[in-house]
């Protein structure tokens, strides 16, 4: 019965501009987390609990970065059945991001193309929001990761200063930090995945993280060799884990010439993300956990990434097409399949 609500609600939401639909949904989510949780969520079956980055997680399914960028709906996610949540990308200073429209739906492909460009309330505002939540006793029981980025106006050679600044403010409130150098919508950002800038950024972020684990999030558009090199280098530099992957600027869909610029996510990303996740796992050689993300929109795909060796799996676009009940269905399938 509760799985019938989304097929009815989705066409109404899909009549709205994607970002308007996003904000409308988040507004409900932040006001009624209990009700939403009761309607479509549910605690993960006990057998799925595990340890991730030294923290207890009730499920290996996490919310990917970008959906709750400014941490406005934190009490909701555990009620949907997520085992952990990654908020952000948060930039050190507030910035508006790219002009709208900046999210495009491809309903036939069950994909999104976004060129958000890190709209962010900024590290100070997000930290204050998290502190208020903690003071009000509404802090979630699941781990909260914070994904960090640089401001658009910061020159590439100063990027490490941005990551360190955001890390210093947010690390005390986070279970772990994720360095995002892989979004395609901030000019020059992905060039920071090269050896020298990456080392500088990881070193500066770790130095400001007060001992919190620092993970690195990579692009699926890196060739496997470059990705393996980045993984190796990150581990040598003390990264505690890898998040693979971000969105792609490639267009693994029909009629690509008609599509807008930006990062593609959702179902068609899965084969590419899976290949890069495999490369990341091979390069990591079990030294640090790899969190798999990209195109997970059905239980078999989550199970597949866990069977490959991922320590956990994240979802974003699948929630838009399958609805928030997807989390409960992923958990139920994994529990039945004995992936606990
Ligand atoms: C609208 C939108 C905004 C996103 N914003 C961010 C972001 O701010 N930081 C980030 O690291 N990833 C961001 N992502 C990427 C997701 O976290 C994820 O890596 C990617 O979408 C692939 O997973 P999916 O196919 O399950 O969506 C965004 C994705 C979408 C669709």
Task: Based on the model shown, name its key terms.
340 residues, alpha/beta, TIM Barrel, 8-stranded parallel barrel, 3-stranded antiparallel beta sheet, 12 helices, globular, binds flavin mononucleotide
Helix-strand layout with pairing:
Elements: H1 5-13, H2 18-31, H3 33-40, E1 50-52, E2 55-57, E3 61-63, H4 74-80, E4 84-90, E5 103-106, E6 111-114, H5 123-135, E7 144-148, H6 159-170, E8 176-180, H7 195-208, E9 214-218, H8 224-236, E10 241-244, E11 263-266, H9 270-284, E12 290-293, H10 299-308, E13 312-315, H11 317-322, H12 326-336
Share of residues in helices: 25-40%
| Strand order across the largest sheet | 3-4-7-8-9-10-12-13
CATH fold type: TIM Barrel
Distance between the termini: 26 Å
């Amino acid at each position: 019965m509760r799985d019938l609500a989304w097929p009815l609600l989705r066409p109404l939401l899909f009549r709205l501009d994607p970002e308007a639909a996003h904000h409308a949904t988040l507004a409900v989510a932040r006001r009624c987390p209990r009700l939403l949780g009761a309607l479509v969520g549910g605690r993960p079956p006990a057998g799925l609990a595990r340890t991730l980055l030294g923290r207890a997680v009730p499920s290996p399914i996490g919310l990917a970065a970008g959906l709750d960028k400014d941490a406005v709906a934190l009490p909701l996610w555990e009620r949907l059945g997520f085992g952990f949540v990654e908020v952000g990308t948060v930039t050190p200073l507030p910035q508006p991001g790219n002009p709208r429209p900046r999210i495009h739906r491809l309903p036939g492909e069950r994909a999104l193309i976004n060129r958000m460009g890190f709209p962010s309330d900024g590290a100070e505002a997000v930290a204050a929001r998290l502190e208020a939540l903690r003071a009000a006793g509404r802090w979630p029981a699941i781990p909260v990761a914070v994904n960090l980025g640089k401001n658009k106006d910061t020159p590439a050679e100063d990027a490490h200063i941005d990551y360190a600044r955001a890390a210093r403010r947010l690390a005390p409130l986070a279970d772990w930090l994720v360095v995002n150098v892989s979004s395609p919508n901030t000019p020059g950002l992905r060039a920071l995945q090269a050896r020298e800038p990456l080392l500088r950024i990881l070193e500066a972020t770790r130095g400001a993280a007060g001992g919190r684990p620092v993970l690195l999030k990579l692009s699926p558009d890196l060739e496997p060799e470059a990705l393996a090199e980045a993984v190796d280098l990150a581990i040598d530099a003390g990264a505690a884990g890898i998040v693979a992957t971000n969105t792609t600027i490639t267009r693994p869909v029909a009629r690509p010439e008609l599509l807008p610029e930006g990062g593609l996510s959702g179902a068609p990303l899965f084969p590419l993300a899976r290949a890069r996740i495999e490369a990341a796992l091979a390069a990591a050689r079990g030294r640090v956990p790899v969190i798999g993300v990209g195109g997970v929109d059905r239980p078999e795909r989550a199970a597949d990434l866990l069977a490959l060796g991922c320590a956990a799996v994240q979802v974003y676009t699948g929630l838009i097409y399958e609805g928030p009940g997807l989390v409960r269905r992923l958990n139920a399938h994994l529990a039945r399949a004995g992936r606990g």
